[in-house]
């Protein structure tokens, strides 16, 4: 409850400073060494890293319409378990989030659940059909105050519609988040195009299908003077295009998913050297089927380097829960997507922190501050400063755990990490001063709640 005060003792902030933090009435009330508890519940954070609450710019919560896969409540619980305090709910629901009414409904469900701030993403086109613009202005002016628009799952492939969308969102400082996938080049595609796809007999998904759309869209964004965000970069060539665009001064930002930073297409072939219980050992494991597809080792290396040098601005999960029957079937019939909220920070630690590409300050930037900036989410610009909303997570980076079903707190179990050992553990998460995770346990919140910080 936001009425409960917590004294977090001896936490190490992203910059290395060790301090106490008093959390009261939804905010950081005091910060400093040796604070007195004044009746607050003590939380021993010695040896733990405090991070600002994580912000996901790319989450599929599936409600309304696909509640058998996930709901706003279950997805918010998964978010809290992963250290997230804000998620952006993608628009490919049913009905689609293409009107003020639907985005307001999703935001209200998020507020009632209380585990995280749910910011709906508005569809760019009506019904994600790619034919005419959705009610972008009405969604922006709604109580949901939508700032991110995306047809994610589908590409806005019509260049004129993309231009109009960019022009429209620029009028209220919004952003279009593009799912860069040229549809004609990817018809029937099943995995990364190349020698391995030929060997496995699966239809190839060429890198150019992603890179060509990004190249077009950065030029459109430059032409109309709008902000563009590119979802889930997966190829070295995409990194080159973004780097070129930024050097030219174009207002583009880009994301990479944890899975594209850790996993390669080689896993689809199976690997007997892996733990026999781990995903991927048997080959054609549909939990590895994702859009865009897992790529080559050299792509993974390019993506890591791009996150490290800032060419890729953020890490976003693309959390995509599916019912078991949609994934436990032949590769060609399986749905694209994997869950990611609960594992994201551990995968970022494994792919970027432990190998020395990022420090914890960088992690705070790519998983909290910058995604909040891109989405224009208030309350994340000065984490840990007295007066700021108490959105934070406490992590034990020295922990190692075998990732299992017990770690999955949403409805989806389509995780590629089941059976694998991952570093790091979320010990506590506070959303607006409410402990959503404490002592490593997801908390049960009373519902409905009204503990959003205004
Ligand atoms: Zn997508």
In short:
By secondary structure, the chain is an alpha/beta fold. Helices cover 28% and strands 20% of the residues.
Structure explained in plain terms:
This protein is of the alpha/beta class and 454 residues long. It has one domain (53-385): Metal-dependent hydrolases (TIM Barrel), CATH 3.20.20. The protein has helices spanning 72-81, 100-113, 136-141, 159-170, 195-200, 207-224, 236-247, 258-262, 297-309, 324-327, 344-353, 360-375, and strands at 6-12, 18-24, 27-32, 41-44, 49-52, 54-59, 84-89, 117-120, 148-149, 175-178, 191-192, 204-205, 228-230, 252-256, 314-315, 392-402, 421-431, 434-438, 441-442. The strands form five sheets. The protein has a five-stranded antiparallel beta sheet with strand order 5-16-17-18-19. A five-stranded parallel beta sheet has the order 9-10-13-14-15. The longest helix has 18 residues, at 207-224. Residues 152-153, 179, 231-232, 291 line the site of zinc ion.
